[in-house]
Write a structure and sequence with these properties.
The chain is an alpha+beta fold. The protein has 16 helices and 28 strands.
Length: 645
């Protein structure tokens, strides 16, 4: 017998029915009703997941503040990690659920943002100038909160809002209501953050928002949107950022599938899917993928610092996830976790909070991002039925723009400039280079997990790879190659990370160890070689270029604000003669190589570098080909100098 009527009767009578959740997942013709007991956990590892028993076990409301588990910064608002431990699960047909849910009209009053438009615009301007303009990252998401007051009983209003989403929204990954007793969340999230089923991990980077109203979307306008370079670049950037996450949790990295259109009632998004195999505990997968770059920025660790510097309030659940953990019939762990966006929180006092964020990139303007937050907030309120001018139902579900031949061709063309390494299946051993099997590489991570993608490429070429944070000391002797990796920051500054990289590289060059430096590492290396460092007037964030690299044309991707400059192709240094690959127009140094060392300004591991694997193969041949550079002949006094890194 269904428990839904008793639950709804309790709400109608003004009683709290206890913790419960109603969830419709993408493609399902039913809702799942979960009831049980509520627990609070300190860490994701503490989320209850019994060792036996098939089915859903726990629905966790993961707040944004859990990023502190990874040592990342945040404005800590104390929002708890609440877990609905499922005692009973029931499937309810959609039609039956709609007949039972309340259909009261919803009215919201006193709607206002927590910051004025002028204040938010000033924040945007500061982030563009002080963060993106100074090399702190490629993009950042800054949120603001719209508050309103819903008339009527809050939980009944939330159930009515859920009914409206079920009838008027489409294309959502999850449409849901979760009630804990202290809060009720209602939303229709378009975006899967991460899922695990039978060991297959999937992620879903989404970027780009095409707005439409009425019953038919404008095909010509959609095609213009799909050709917009800004929208294309933003999707590539979040694709790169989520590939970094996938590379951390999947044994062989991730494979890119798509792109696709995500068609909703009043919005259409562009998206990719990522897939990879993992044997990790699903709670560890969840931890290593906190949180999506589409709601934080990149690189992730520094994005959290930037958010903490510029957001004046905590995020609550915004940018966090709902996470349903369980086991399949064979006892294997399962996970399904949508991102908590397009979500409203109904408080017992009747206050409704809708958090929205704008993605700030090098092309952004303060006025444009202010308008973006207004549009997103209005869209959420309208979808929930809380807006006074809620638009009519969206396009006919039977008319799919994604089926249009020109739309399909335009989407397919987006993959033409991308790296096949991440788009194609890679049979084990298919890219191993002769002489590299068994060689060992250490990657020093300077706070950009592009290093995880770089590790997979080096592994694919035959190396055994270890990744080590820049601040963690350790021996270098076991390694044939040291890679000083990318990261945010000013390469000419004196902050601890830059100083440590400078000391590390000095020791490596002095000892003659084979060394490869990437992006920030390359900039620090160039400075040690006497080249001047320059901050670009327009950051190279997510920029793909065809360059001349030591006599060969290569197409590669850049994520940088700074560059070294040179007016010659040959440079005498205390470490030997250095070849310089530079831009003929402005002298920007794309790469350099000397006896036993090399540096590249671009990211060979990026999905924007179709020639990246070939570049790495050439550089490894240069660095590791000579027998005198192997471990057996390393200078015995170099250990102390290099361990400081």
């Amino acid at each position: 017998m269904s428990r839904l009527p008793d639950l709804l009767a309790a709400v109608t009578d003004g009683r709290d029915p206890g913790p419960f959740a109603l969830v419709r997942r993408e493609g399902a013709d039913h809702l799942d009703l979960f009831t049980g007991t509520l627990r609070v956990a300190d860490r994701l590892a503490d989320i209850p997941l019994p060792a036996t028993g098939a089915g859903p076990h726990t629905l966790a409301l993961v707040p944004y503040r859990q990023v502190t588990e990874r040592g990342f910064a945040c404005v800590d608002d104390g929002t708890p990690l609440e877990c609905l431990v499922v005692d009973a699960a029931e499937r309810i047909g959609t039609a039956r659920a709609l007949a039972a849910l309340p259909a009261d009209p919803l009215v919201a009053t006193d709607a206002a943002f927590d910051s004025t438009d002028e204040e938010y615009a000033a924040t945007v301007a500061r982030v563009l100038a002080e963060e993106i303009g100074r090399g702190e990252g490629a993009n950042f998401v800054i949120h603001r909160t719209l508050t309103a007051r819903a008339q009527g009983t809050p939980l009944r209003a939330a159930l009515t809002a859920l009914r409206r989403l079920l009838t008027r929204e489409r294309g959502a990954y999850w449409t849901f209501l979760v009630h804990t007793g202290t809060r009720t969340l209602v939303g229709a999230s378009p975006e899967r953050h991460v899922s695990v089923d039978d060991g297959l991990v999937m992620m879903n980077p989404i970027s780009g928002t095409f707005r439409h109203t009425g019953t038919t979307a404008d095909r010509a306008a959609l095609l213009r949107f799909l050709h917009d370079p800004k929208e294309v670049e933003e999707l590539y950037m979040v694709l790169d950022e989520e590939l970094k996450m996938m590379a951390r949790v999947a044994e062989h990295g991730g494979q890119v599938v798509g792109p696709y259109l995500k068609e909703m009632a009043h919005l259409t998004h562009t998206e990719y899917l990522l897939a990879g195999r993992s044997s990790r505990d699903v709670r560890e997968v969840l931890r290593e993928t906190m949180f999506a770059p589409t709601v934080t920025g990149s690189p992730m660790e520094n994005a959290c610092r930037v958010i903490a510097r510029h957001e004046r309030t905590g995020r609550g659940h915004y940018a966090g996830v709902l996470a349903l953990l369980g086991r399949d019939d064979a006892g294997r762990q399962t996970l399904d976790a949508p991102i908590l966006i397009r979500t409203a929180e109904f408080a017992p006092t009747g206050e409704v909070r809708v958090k929205v964020g704008a993605t700030l990139v090098r092309h952004s303007t303060p006025a444009g991002e202010v308008a973006e937050t207004h549009a997103k907030a209005a869209g959420v309120l309208a979808a929930l039925g809380l807006g006074p001018d809620a638009p009519a139902a969206g396009p006919d579900p039977a008319v799919r723009l994604a089926d249009d031949p020109e739309v399909r061709a335009t989407l397919a063309a987006r993959n033409e400039p991308l790296a096949r390494f991440w788009l194609d299946q890679r049979p084990p051993g298919s890219t191993v280079l002769p002489g590299l099997a068994g060689r060992r590489a250490l990657i020093v991570d300077a706070e950009d997990t592009f290093t995880a993608m770089l590790a997979h490429q080096l592994t694919a070429l035959g190396l055994t790879v270890e990744v080590r944070p820049w601040q963690q000391p350790g021996p270098l002797d076991p390694h044939d190659l040291v890679v000083v990796g990318p990261g945010p920051g000013d390469p000419g500054g004196d902050e601890p990370k830059t100083a440590a990289l400078r000391t590390l590289l000095t020791g490596l060059l002095t000892a003659g160890r084979p060394t490869l430096a990437v992006c920030l590492g390359h900039q620090v290396l160039a400075g040690l070689l006497g080249l001047p460092l320059h901050r670009r007037a327009s950051p190279y964030q997510g920029v793909q270029r065809r360059i001349r690299l030591f006599g060969t044309s290569r197409r590669v991707g850049f994520y940088s604000t700074f560059t070294a400059l040179a007016d010659t192709d040959r440079l005498p240094t205390r470490y030997g003669p250095v070849e310089v690959a530079r831009d003929d127009t402005d002298g920007a140094v794309h790469a350099l190589r000397g006896p036993g060392f090399a540096g590249v300004q671009f990211h060979p591991e990026s999905v924007l570098s179709p020639d990246g694997l070939a570049v790495l193969a050439d550089l490894l041949a240069h660095l590791l080909a000579r027998p005198e550079r192997t471990l057996a002949t390393h200078h015995p006094t170099d250990r102390a100098a290099t361990e400081r890194g």
